[in-house]
Amino acid sequence: MTSVRLSLLISLAEKYSVTLINIGSTVIIARLLTPLEIGVYSVGLAFVAIAHTLRDFGVGNYLIQEKDLTENRIRTAAGLTLLLAWSLALLLALGSSVIADIYSKPEMRSVLLILSLSFVIIPFSSPTLALLRRNMAFKALYQIRIVSAIVHASVAVGLAWQGYSFESLAWASLAGVTTTAVIAAFHRPKMGIIWPNLVEWRHVASFGGKSSVDALITQIGMNAIDLIGGRLLGFAAVGLFSRAQGLISMFSREFTNAVAQVALPAFAAGHRAGIDLKEPYLKSVGTLTLFAWPFYCFLALMAYPIIRIMFGDQWDAAVPLVQILSVAGIAAATWALCGQILLGMGRINELLKAQILLQSVRIVIVFVTASYSITHVAVGQIFFYVLTYFVFYRALKPLVYITNMDMFRATWKSAMVAVTSSIVPAFALFYMQPGPENLWPPLLVASCGMGLGWLGGIYLFKHDFSGEIVNAYQSALGMFGKVKS
């Protein structure tokens, strides 16, 4: 098994293990906290997420893609991370009252103060995590993130149960960050403790500054719904959108990020070796859409029973949002790895230009649609994701010549698999008609039918991934044979 394939399997195992943990905690928390409470935390978290992009300063991506990575450059990266993180912790703490006043929600101040403490701790782990990704040490990353997820979920549920409201989520985030830092200390690189300095700050900043601006612009665009919606539509509407987006993110955050965190170092290694990245990229897109498109189709069809079972009836208004965002997710899967290949090739300028255009358009879309309703905001995301496809591939074309026909060849089989995997879920929706007293039967039928339709579609249309399934099956048989003997 190649190192990339093994790394991808470990990364997927990590992401789906974390997803199972998060699903368990989310189901409980959705019954302990209201949409208003989730909305307050989401808006506070949006400010912190933007600050996190400044804190990182592109250091993680720099450490992964740098061709000539010396010890001094590693220490400089750590020094910049420490300087920026602690400065932002102070700034966020001092500005917490102002932000709370803007939204006329004094309680938001405590959320921001708690979350600002994470900036004090993160510098002790972030350089190590980036180096582990560069070296594709995903077993170590698996251990770190699983334990951190368990701690995060336990603290969130425990404190929410005790009545800590939205503060429970903030304390849980801090507990998870602290756990990550402690465990990462046991996986430091051979150089031992990374003592920070600023000796090569100009070299690191030349890449990190642009990467940080790119990430900052992206985060502002991604959090525009929370920031603008919180003012124009209220915290309850933002809470509903956050819950819908959270359900969608169980795929985009866990599966797509699992592929992306392997793709970036793999593309970077291929670029350093002078390999043409066109075919590896198209194969990655074909694999990603094979999983993404059936998932989003299933989620759109079964949104009602999933929302009811997982979160309860107070979240029913999130159902149409989930269905709309599922359509947006189908579009997003086609370009989800564009940023990784551009970063892997060190072409931060092209990525930055694309993001400046895209996120500017996104903010305008959110501002206009938020003047109507949260449903209009969700519909606006479909338009944005379709536009992103054309902008990203225009930026990529001079570097890796990929045409629309290339994309069609790479993804048409995934589209056919999405159709075969949606036949039974569509039957369950229209003929079994899920309702308040009829949730589990249609969902179970749809789930089984989706799985069988997915496997059947892969073999019927001879998708490239069928070989991976055969290899996994043979490996499982081999392991079973060894255990039996």
UniProtKB/TrEMBL annotation:
Q: Does the keyword Zinc-finger apply?
A: no
This protein's membrane topology, according to the annotation, is: Multi-pass membrane protein
Q: Which subcellular locations apply to this protein? A: Cell membrane
**GO annotations of cellular component type:** plasma membrane
Name the major location.
membrane
Tell me if Cell membrane is a UniProt keyword of this record. yes
| InterPro entries per the UniProt record, alphabetical | Poly_Biosynth_Transport
Task: Give the Pfam families listed for this entry.
Answer: Polysacc_synt_3 (PF13440)
Q: Where exactly are the transmembrane stretches of this chain?
A: 76-99, 111-132, 144-162, 168-186, 288-311, 317-344, 356-376, 414-433, 439-461
What keywords would UniProt list here?
A: Cell membrane, Membrane, Transmembrane, Transmembrane helix
Please report which protein family the annotation says this sequence is part of: Belongs to the polysaccharide synthase family.
Can you name this protein? Answer: Lipopolysaccharide biosynthesis protein
